[in-house]
Amino acid sequence: MSKVRTRYAPSPTGKMHVGNLRSALYEFLIAKHAGGDFMLRIEDTDQERFVEGATEIIYRTLDKAGLRHDEGPDKDGGFGPYVQSERMKTGIYMEYAKELVEKGEAYYCFCDKERLDSLKTEIVEGKEIMMYDKRCLSLTKEEVEQNLAAGKPFVIRQNIPREGTTTFHDELYGDITVENAQLDDMVLIKSDGYPTYNFANVVDDHTMHITHVVRGNEYLSSSPKYQRLYDAFGWESPVYIHLPLITDENHKKLSKRSGHASFEDLLEQGFVTEAVVNYIALLGWSPEENREIFSLEELIEKFDYRRISKSPAVFDMVKLKWMNGEYFKAMEFGKFYGMAEPYLKEAVHKGYDLEKIAAMVKTRIEILPDIAEHVDFFEAVPDYEVSMYAHKKMKTTPESSLEVLRELLPILEAQEDYSNDALYACLCRYVEEKGCKNGYVMWPVRTAVSGKQMTPGGATELMEVLGKEETVARVRAAIVKLEKGL
Ligand code: GLU
């Protein structure tokens, strides 16, 4: 068996969306699982769709996601050039196109736009396509020579017989057979001399010894034409894996409009790189075991492309957020703090110990922007109703809370050590003297210092961060509020 070689072959036409990254990830995993090579090839033959800066996004995204390529424009592996526009300059595509012309598998076409526009279009698989009527196929060799000598613009088209069928194999879909009458004589070389993607991908995958091709299933309908090219050259086609569509929660195709961002947008929104990669791996693939959290190394070990599903994968934001939260929980604190600090600084301006606050929120947030709502009260106690002091389980009422806070105020004023442990011991002593349950005291204190029903830490943890002066001021203010509110 030859060495497994896969390629990610993006067209530099914009951002890298979730679907693009999934193709790249699966190509990477197939190669690395088998100890093979993963290659990056830039498919820039469609000059009209080229977007400035898109190639840089591709490099950045692969790098951030940890998908290191073994070969590519920046890493020669002996199969270069790795950029199609540069490959074109070597004359490779034209040479192979001419070989097909010689074999009768392709032909020169000189029809101008006007004539092509006048040809009938047909609906194939819901798409309107123009079926070229093969007029130029009947040109004699001399006529072709004359036209070329006269500098007439031309394209080279694939010559597909009108009768018969073509069959190709896909790992997920099995054998697919189509009527040749449905296949148009697609352009291989355009009038600007560039190959079409349709032609270049076949020539490149073969000459670069690619063994497995992973791409979106929008390419399924073109694959019979590619198969005919492989057959015409007498080449063996790679293993094809056409991935199911990724849809949103409403089963609509993912789009920016429906709020589905590119990989970089997701990172900007506060998602963890490894969580996004982990989540994307599961969009259409599932491991044998019932488990969802995988590092990239674990994915390499477990990935078996035969377990990719044919049914559409649903991009579920709720699930991605959950997974992201799991990554925060498991993350080393220093790394988490590095990510959380800008969000904490944005939300808390007073000189509190942000590391302590970060430690409290680490296990409670799903994405970084969640931090703000968890920590806003450190800045200032929000306006709240005194009814918040009533808690059934803790058996507290606004009245009982007022009594507790009044009794505690002098104790808190006298307390010197405002560390969590010392404060906890101090409150417990009071609880014991009063002969009540813990919550009967902790609930009013926590409410008084935070004004919130849910906080990222217990009463004394919050008080440690707030410090003596602020804690006492907040308890005083709570007493006044309760006195007024009752
Ligand atoms: N350049 C194509 C694209 O970006 C790649 C398709 C393929 O992987 O063959 O969609």
Q: How do the strands and helices of this protein lay out in sequence?
A:
Elements: E1 5-8, H1 18-33, E2 37-40, H2 54-65, H3 84-89, H4 92-103, E3 106-109, H5 113-118, E4 121-124, E5 127-130, H6 141-149, E6 155-158, E7 165-170, E8 174-179, E9 187-189, H7 197-207, E10 212-216, H8 223-233, E11 239-243, E12 246-247, H9 263-268, H10 273-281, H11 296-302, E13 313-314, H12 317-330, H13 333-347, H14 354-361, H15 371-379, H16 398-414, H17 420-434, H18 438-450, H19 459-485
Helix pairs in contact: 1-11, 10-12, 13-14, 13-15, 16-18, 16-19, 17-19, 18-19
Bound molecules: glutamic acid.
Report what the structure shows.
This protein has 486 residues and is mainly alpha-helical. It has helices at 18-33, 54-65, 84-89, 92-103, 113-118, 141-149, 197-207, 223-233, 263-268, 273-281, 296-302, 317-330, 333-347, 354-361, 371-379, 398-414, 420-434, 438-450, 459-485; strands spanning 5-8, 37-40, 106-109, 121-124, 127-130, 155-158, 165-170, 174-179, 187-189, 212-216, 239-243, 246-247, 313-314. The longest helix is centred in the C-terminal third of the chain and has 27 residues, at 459-485. The chain is elongated and about 110 Å long. A hairpin with a 2-residue loop joins β4 (121-124) and β5 (127-130). It contains 19 helices and 13 strands. α10 (273-281) packs across α12 (317-330). The strands form 6 sheets. A 3-stranded antiparallel sheet has the order 3-6-9. Helices cover 46% and strands 11% of the residues. The structure holds glutamic acid. Glutamic acid (GLU) binds at residues 9-11, 43, 197, 201, 215.
